[in-house]
Amino acid sequence: MARPFCPVELTDTHCHLDFPQLAADLPGVLERARAAGVHRMITIGTSIEGSRQAIALAEQHSCIFAAVGVHPNSAHEVEPGWLDELRQLAAHPRAVAIGETGLDYFRLPKPKPGADDETKARKAVQAEVFKAQLDLAAELKRPVVIHERDAWDDTLLTLRAYTGRIRAVFHCFGRSFAHAESLLALGHRVSFTGIATFPSAPEAQACAAQLPAGSFFVETDAPYLAPTPFRGKTCEPAHVVHTASHIAELRGVSLERLALETESAAVKFFGLPG
User: Which of 46, 78, 115, 194 would give a disulfide with 82, using CB separation of 3.0 to 4.6 Å?
Assistant: First the structure.
């Protein structure tokens, strides 16, 4: 299957290189990325251990940077002292962001009349861990990678309290242009995965077509969400070129122009080397 080449060096702003699907063949993953024109990746922590691994990968490979954080679905697993360790990891020179963090209500137990205490408790833990990481980001002046699923209102309510104190990107964005506009108004950004190539995602496609240049990035969320034509296969950073190419078509611009715009935005947001 043909792999397009990006004529401008491109960054995959969100992948999970420590996950076993990619870690088992990391040299091959990195080589295929380079061959596609993807010169840089940000590997994202989803737990304290995953954040340690993200930093280790960034130390070993000059093309890798790290984000460190605790995913909402891992919030209930944090142990005493977790925030202090996260602070130390975030201070590492190869760490460029806090995250991914946020709120995810998709997998919570469904509330039952008179018996929704477990759901409320899990939401409370997610909120506590989320706010702790936002406080840390404000303290360290680091951008934040946001995960939001089925929790839009609560996520926005939390973020509004930090307006002017943090900059965030909503990764794997699949909501409407109006939703994205509300984030941009707060000074935040969005990032598109392979979902933007799915025929079943017209809102994401319409949003990607309309957003102003410089307000969004491209990513894979590898090993998940492989773009068309790789659906059903393990996603990897090289595939971000397919997503960028499709968004360029939606916007009526060249892949080179789209790559230049998203790369410039990513460099500015994450403080990456230009």
Answer: 78
What end-to-end distance do the CA atoms of the chain give, in Å?
Answer: 32
Look up residue 195 and give its amino acid. I
pTM exceeding 0.90:
yes
3-state class (DSSP) for residue 240: helix
Segments making up each domain of the chain, as ranges: 10-106+117-270
Residues 6+ apart with CB under 8 A from 161: none
C-alpha triplet 117, 122, 124: angle, nearest 5°: 95
Class of 10-106+117-270 per CATH?
alpha beta
Q: What is the pLDDT of residues 31-55, one digit of tens each?
A: 999 999 999 999 999 999 999 999 9
- Give residue 251's pLDDT band: very low, low, confident or very high (50, 70, 90): very high
Which residues share a beta bridge with 216?
190
